[in-house]
């Protein structure tokens, strides 16, 4: 890790503190371009915006997918206060970002908050494979 990496991670932690001060979960992230310039910053706003998807990592991934060409996106680094959750990791993957550097791992975060319970919803499936595959078949070729 470079001194710049440490500087940007510290900024992500500052953004997390700002999120908490604003009444939101304490998570912050920033996206740095290939030239080392900060392209965008975000903090969690899931409570104040009543949007369960308003995680900073996902907001930055959506921004990058809209605003950056694929080559630039692939050359960026996202700095984030905590390891991205599954939802955010999916968005980051689909946006084509090149690198994510996080301060706290999911495991470390787990030691700082109450344990999560089992999922509160049921999942059932797969079902209707022959019908469900029709709109998808050939799309990824």
UniProtKB/TrEMBL annotation:
Q: Which InterPro entries match?
A: CMP_dCMP_dom, Cytidine_deaminase-like
Q: What is this protein called?
A: Nucleoside deaminase
Q: Where is the CMP/dCMP-type deaminase domain?
A: 3-120
Supply the source organism's classification.
Answer: Bacteria, Bacillati, Actinomycetota, Actinomycetes, Streptosporangiales
PANTHER family xref list: CYTOSINE DEAMINASE FAMILY MEMBER (PTHR11079), TRNA(ADENINE(34)) DEAMINASE, CHLOROPLASTIC (PTHR11079:SF179)
């Amino acid at each position: 890790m470079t001194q710049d990496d440490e500087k940007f991670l510290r900024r992500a932690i500052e953004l997390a503190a700002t999120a908490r001060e604003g009444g939101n979960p304490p998570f912050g992230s920033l996206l740095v371009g290939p030239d080392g310039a900060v392209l965008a910053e975000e903090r969690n706003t899931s409570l104040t915006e009543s949007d369960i998807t308003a995680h900073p990592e996902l907001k930055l991934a959506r921004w990058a997918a809209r605003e950056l060409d694929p080559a630039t996106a692939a050359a960026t680094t996202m700095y984030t206060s905590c390891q991205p959750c599954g939802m955010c990791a999916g968005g980051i993957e689909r946006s084509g970002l090149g690198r994510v550097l996080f301060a706290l791992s999911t495991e470390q975060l787990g030691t700082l908050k109450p344990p999560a319970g089992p999922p509160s919803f049921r999942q059932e499936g797969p079902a209707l494979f022959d019908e469900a595959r029709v709109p998808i078949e050939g799309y990824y070729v």
